[in-house]
Amino acid sequence: MTATLVLPQLIADELDTTAKLAIETAGVLLASVVITDEGETRILGRKMRWLPESSYIRRGIDHLSIASDGYVPFLAEAEGMGGVAVWVHTHPGMDSVPQPSRHDEEVDHQIADLFRLRSGSPFYGTLIASPRATGIAFTGYLQSEGEARVPIVKLWEVGDRLRLTRSFDLAPLDIPPIFDRNVRAFGGSVQQALGALRIGIVGCGGTGSAVAEQLVRLGVRNLVLFDSDILSASNVTRVYGSSASDVGRAKVDVLGDHLERIAPDTRCELVKSMITLAPAARRLCNCDIVFGCTDDNAGRLVLSRFSTYMLTPVIDSGVLLTSDVAGTLLGIDGRVTTLVPGQACLVCRGRIDLTRAGAELLTPDERRRREDEGYAPGLGRTEPAVVTFTTIVAATAVSELLERLIGYGPKPRPSEVLLRCHDREISTNVEAPHMGHYCHESSSKLGVGVTVPFLEQTWPT
Questions:
Q1: Which pTM value belongs to this model?
Q2: Sequence-separated (6 or more) residues with CB below 8 Å from residue 262
Q3: Any idea which fold 3-166 has?
Q4: If you count Cβ atoms within 10 Å of the first and of the last residue's Cβ in the chain, which end, N or C, has fewer?
Q5: Residue 393 near residue 318, CB atoms below 8 Å
Q6: Pick the CATH number of 178-456 from 3.40.50.2300, 3.40.50.300, 3.20.20.140, 3.40.50.720
Q7: Is 67 left (phi over 0), alpha (psi -120 to 50) or beta?
Q8: pLDDT, tens digit, for every residue of 101-153?
Q9: Per-residue pLDDT tens for 59-82?
């Protein structure tokens, strides 16, 4: 088993800045722990508390000694938020090694039980950070009492920027020669990040299949595909990798086979379910980032909430074609919205029809009854769709991931891109979370992790 540490960009920037100080510095990261269905661990950073100067007994470039009353209040804070306390300290110097010294190991042994007891958590965690020209080098682990250490192998920074750093203890990933053109464009570190990310794609139709194929050709090798639908004859005109012989097969099977033909080392986990069912939604926890390519409002509600609770970036996309009764195309609109800490969710942005979302969550019989009585909107209409336009939106969505990994665009980055293909226009915007909503910092829901019920919402059976 391994662990991924997920940090909102504000906390990651604090850590970067502190690691560059000339003397050792210590603090406590307050976090939530999520154990995924596959047994992997995700540590979701929520607050960083640096020790006050008065708590240091001795402090230098290669040593520190601290009075326990300097960190005990932070352990109580972790208990109050139902989280875990991770002991953090730095090894200063650009050439320093972020590996535990004998003294560090002794300190871990001395304080582990106190951290567990005072935080009310079964876990003790530690993280050592050293400065680098960009970001930090690190090692760390999480450990339950009497259990083996779970090493933190990835640091995933999420926000206006996305950055993945692998543990100092790990050897660099090999970059196959087939990605030479990519590396020439954006460098080896981004290529390695693409190979290390686990990406979920919700919806494997015209947009989702185009997103998936582009990701695999870029070097992504770990995907989780979600879709409950069967490929129809009309889907073949848009779904990448499909053919007439695939009609009647599950969309995730068709797409999974196609991606593995492109790159046989691709690992695709196939989930034949809507994410509006809790067991499927929980499998999103395995992902570092999720592309929302579903056309239902209820699914977007889940993704919007999931992004906040699990600190998981969601890149949500939509395509709308409008035409008159004669079949004349009037409008071609696309949208790509990036959900990260500090940006408004899909509900705050008004991108979800809550009435239709409620109807989509009803059982088929209840939905028909309410439609007949006029209490629920009809959902049976088939919307127009064209491969050219779903592909444009898919490419825009994948480009948002690349831009946040590479950093070639404007700063601060827009969190939404609107395409008006009929007018040949593109616009962008930024919207802050609404006060009091779950995506706002004041709600204390950022990184809260697994709740009961999951995502604190009602799920259909």
A1: 0.95
A2: 213, 216, 217
A3: Cytidine Deaminase; domain 2 (3.40.140)
A4: C
A5: yes
A6: 3.40.50.720
A7: beta
A8: 999 999 999 999 999 999 999 999 999 999 999 899 999 999 999 999 999 99
A9: 988 888 899 889 999 999 999 999
